Amino acid sequence: MRIVFCCFYEAYPPASGAATVSYNLARFASGSKALVQLGPEDDRIALRDNVEIITLAWSSASRYAKFAQVRNFVRRMVEEVQRAAADMVILEGASWAVYHWMLLRAIRQAEPRIKVVYHSHNVEYYLRLSRNGRLIATLTRWAEGHLLRNADFSTAVSEIDQDQFERLYRVKPSLLPNGVDVERFASPDPVRVERLRQSFRLDMNTVIFAGFYAYKPNREAVDFLVRTVMPSLRQRHSTATLALTGGGAPYHESWIRNVGSVPYEDFPAFVAACGIAVAPIFSGSGTRLKILEAMAAGLPVVATEKAAEGLSLRHGEDVLFAHDKAGFVNCIIHLLASDSLRGQLREAARRKARDQFSWPLLLRNFEYEISTSHAYTGSRIRSCLRRPTGTKT
Fold this sequence. Notes:
By secondary structure, this protein is an alpha/beta fold. The chain has helices at residues 17-28, 63-83, 97-110, 124-131, 134-150, 159-169, 182-186, 190-200, 216-236, 267-272, 289-297, 325-337, 339-356, 359-372; strands at residues 2-6, 32-39, 43-47, 51-57, 88-93, 115-120, 153-156, 174-175, 206-210, 241-245, 256-260, 276-279, 301-303, 320-321. It is globular and about 65 Å long.
């Protein structure tokens, strides 16, 4: 099987949640793989795990310039699909659905034999409606519906997203949850962990939030932490600090470790160098990699139920749920004061990440679903977590 993953963004090296999902999907998938992405300059490199990274140059910072160039990108992506003699193309739906609609149409015209999968990262219509206004949202809804109805196979990251797609488009995609590279986070280099602790003044009293500040749900979370949670927390625990990764946050208080974007190779060690992970997410869709990565690293997590949508996590067993300032402060204080609770959550989180969210497990089920399906039709409801007999979880 030869698979080409198409991204209208830079997925390698991963510097965001969307990029991490796309790269890991390519990395852990079976067969021979190529990942076509947009980046600063044309490039072609071969990585381990049988993944070829093909970068198409896009240097403009203007979204309008990108839109003007999209037809050329679509043409070049189709050429790469043909050069690879692909059996399957996976459209990585973390960019505007209109781009993927154009690419799907071009692939159908050039290579109608190829199976096309639309891998949604969220319900984009709702995301655009909250961020870009009604005109862009309307175009998005039209393109997203077209993709779900006309791709050979389509996926959603959670049951909540599945239900929203069904209400919007009368199509219920298969379920492909976001996963985590468990081994990478469970066994960071201890020398690197200690180096990062020293460099950024991190310790077990450090609370970490990971995510780009420019993304509205992350911006809401960071503002909530800095302006509301941390001042109250530090009144009760004066050595508590807050680590912010992802970049863009405009805060520089002495108790904030505002480190920007952490290099991909350092990120697992950076997470392990902290004490508690938080995810006060109040809007958006999809599932939060920041929670899965913290769980795989063995950090106790305090999150809103919105942040944990689709993950089937239990309060007091896998994570702690909080809804407001008092809830977050009390949960963090409880964790800082109780080694036994931290240990309990640490082991439960690692076990849950390994048993339910590891990429090899998720890809094994996804590939079984793809291999046994015929052309996808919107009237057929399928789940890629429907397991073959004998598959262990």
